[in-house]
Design brief:
The chain has about 400 residues and is of the alpha/beta class. Helix content is about 40%, strand content about 20%. The structure holds guanosine-5'-diphosphate-alpha-D-mannose.
Length: about 400
């Protein structure tokens, strides 16, 4: 792969944010170029062998999930965390049947579990991590909640890198690229605490019966603006470095995943920046993780070659996401009165029932949970956990 080197890197305390890097070629020929990094496929493959891709899914079209699963590089482990409908119209069963057939044909390692499995809730309860449980001790609805389950399963199978891919993607080839882009980021990383966030080159929409290749999503434009404002007002130097505030497509080293805090639902991605700025930024008070602070937290932002075409979920969904995003920034330790007032203006009519954005309940790091024990508790007892092994190795 040939990827542009970042022209600039913003350093905010222990957090290094690299400027957007474009994919120049998905394949490359070892040509030495001072402005680009050539990453041989063997190096990418070494990362993929240590990589789990978590796919959170809730009631998506089965054809889309099927395409996404078939696109994930073979060397990775796939982890599907489903929160799809059960009961009479058992979508989870359809997903399971499809995955069983796919595994028969491919023999790729896949783990599947349902978010509402009582044994999953019980395993969290036993681990003392009840922050994502509802009053019935089941895991709440929410994409972040599904991602946390996925991360624990990834840890239980010993993976060093954990990435995420949405299940509603219409272009399987783009999913394959996303995973390779993650691997490229980790090949460039100098810190064991690093994150790769993707910026889609285009997000096509149908406008007046024609395809329009839109560059920025409505929510991400706002989120990026406020994350940059947070950085600018605290460093005293204006910046526009953050362009991946809402990156649903992102990946982390397991070491970083272990020390992150998580915000619920769709606010998980913008909060990752807020947390890192608060905890490791210029004004961090006491360092809970000195090793990470010393090594530095490295964030890569990569622009994909492929466009992103996915299911549209409607206006209310967009407003909820916007609210979730801006709330995490509003509640940041670094947010001053100026940024707060701007955020309130931005939320305008979305906030008609509140005077100020509601506080977000943050979930603590998962590093303290014994992932092997978590898995042991599920295996044998859980009705929905299926572990499809890779039989080639
Ligand atoms: N396990 C689980 N549990 N999965 C869920 C849940 C849940 O409660 N809710 C949603 N998902 C799955 C969806 O099925 C999909 O695969 C993925 O999470 C993303 O959800 P979408 O509803 O498709 O989100 P979106 O397309 O509007 O937003 C995506 O892109 C944004 C950036 O533009 C998400 O990835 C956002 O998190 C991201 O910020």
């Amino acid at each position: 792969m040939l990827i542009e080197l970042p022209r600039q890197t913003e350093v905010f305390g222990s957090v290094k944010i690299h400027e957007l890097q474009r994919i120049l070629k998905l394949d490359s020929g070892g040509f030495k170029n001072p402005r680009a990094k050539d990453i041989p496929f063997d190096e990418l493959k070494d990362v993929l062998n240590r990589f789990a891709v978590v796919i959170p899914v809730k009631d998506e079209k089965i054809h889309l999930l099927d395409g996404v699963l078939r696109a994930i590089p073979f060397n990775c482990t796939i982890i599907v965390v489903s929160n799809s409908e059960r009961g009479e119209h058992d979508l989870y069963k359809m997903e399971k049947d499809m995955i069983t057939k796919l595994h028969e044909l491919t023999q790729q390692e896949v783990l599947l579990v349902h978010q509402k499995d009582p044994e999953v809730g019980f395993a969290f309860y036993e681990a003392g991590y009840d922050y994502l449980l509802d009053k019935d001790d089941l895991v709440r609805d929410g994409k972040a909640e599904g991602m946390i389950i996925g991360m624990l399963l990834a840890k239980s199978v010993g993976k060093d890198f954990i990435g995420f891919a949405d299940a509603d993607n219409y272009i399987p080839g783009s999913v394959r690229e996303y995973v390779l882009d993650y691997a490229a980021g980790f090949c460039m990383s100098e810190s064991p605490y690093s994150m790769v966030r993707l910026h889609w080159r285009y997000k096509p929409k149908v406008v007046e019966e024609r395809l329009y290749f839109k560059k920025w999503g409505r929510v991400s434009e706002v989120t990026n603006k406020y994350l940059n404002l947070l950085l600018s007002t605290n460093s005293g130097f204006e910046t526009g470095v953050v362009v991946t505030g809402n990156a649903g497509e992102h990946a982390m080293t397991t070491k970083l995943a272990d020390i992150m805090r998580y915000s619920p639902g769709y606010s998980i991605e913008p909060y990752q920046f807020v947390y890192l700025f608060d905890e490791f930024g210029l004004k961090a008070e006491k360092m809970a993780y000195p090793d990470a602070a010393n090594a530095g937290i490295e964030i890569f932002q990569i622009e994909t070659l492929n466009p992103h075409l996915h299911e549209e979920k409607g206006e209310k969904h967009i407003k909820d996401m916007l609210l979730g995003s801006v709330c995490t920034i509003y509640n940041s330790k670094l947010c001053n009165d100026y940024v707060r007032s701007k955020a309130l203006e931005e939320l305008g009519d979305i906030l008609d029932t509140w005077e100020k954005p509601p506080e977000v309940t943050i979930m603590p790091p998962i590093g303290g949970i014994d992932a092997d024990r978590f898995m042991d508790m599920l295996e044998g007892k859980s009705e929905t956990l299926v572990r499809y092994k890779e039989t080639r190795r």
